[in-house]
Amino acid sequence: MFSAITMPFDVAKSICLRIDDDNRSKLLSYHQNRITRFENSLQNYYFTEIVPIPDLRAIQSGKVMTSFPTMFTHAPLFYTPKEFSKHLQNIIKLLQTFDTYNVHPIPTSQIDGCSVYCKEDVGVIIEKSTPPAITFAINESNMNAAFWDYMRLMLSKQPRDKVQRNITIDTINTIAETLKDL
């Protein structure tokens, strides 16, 4: 699943209509701040997401979980196909706008329910969003460097390769276009 910080505000707002009013405003305020900080950080740091792309049928049937923190929602929230399409369109926009942002889609079976977010020279977050949810944050410099080396080996390609970036954009765009009119 894609990180919440790449979710556009209008999608977050749509999803938040499904939670109680008390938590809605807190979550939306928190989300807007995270988006702003994230996009500002892309000016100076590389950020790579290794994410499983869900099965098209799971997306169409509304079975893809968002990555909103459960401290605000108390239960998992799921995308509608239109919301997921808009999130994918925002991923494409980020890829086209920031050379420092990279996405590596992988088959869902490789890290089912997990996502890996890397900010070069800063840290790594490994997140399991399915219950029981857990997040590991690593910011020790030697561990971070080791993880980046492992990531490059695991992906069998350089994270900032232009050809791979275009393939990723095309792949994500195909899914987004398929879902747009559902």
Question: What can you see in these coordinates?
Answer:
By secondary structure, this protein is an alpha+beta fold. It is 49% helix and 17% strand. It has helices spanning 9-16, 21-41, 56-60, 70-73, 81-97, 141-155, 162-180; strands spanning 47-53, 101-107, 114-119, 123-128, 134-138. Helix 5 (81-97) packs antiparallel against helix 7 (162-180). The protein is globular and about 45 Å long. The chain starts with 8 loop residues before the first helix and ends with a helix.
What is the SS-derived class?
A: alpha+beta
Main sheet attributes: strand count, strand direction, barrel closure: 5 strands, mixed
Q: Please tally the helical runs, counting DSSP H or I stretches of 4 or more residues.
A: 7
Q: What is the CA-atom radius of gyration, in angstroms?
A: 16 Å
Query: What percentage of residues falls in helices of 4 or more residues?
Result: 40-55%
Oligomer: single chain
The low-confidence runs, each spanning 5 or more residues with pLDDT under 50, are: none
Strand content: 15-25%
Spatial ordering of strands, largest sheet: 2-1-3-4-5
Query: What average pLDDT do the residues reach?
Result: 83
**Judging from the principal axes of the Cα atoms, what is the shape?**
globular
Count of beta strands: 5
Separation of the first and last Cα atoms: 20 Å
Q: Can you write the helix and strand succession as a string?
A: HHEHHHEEEEHH
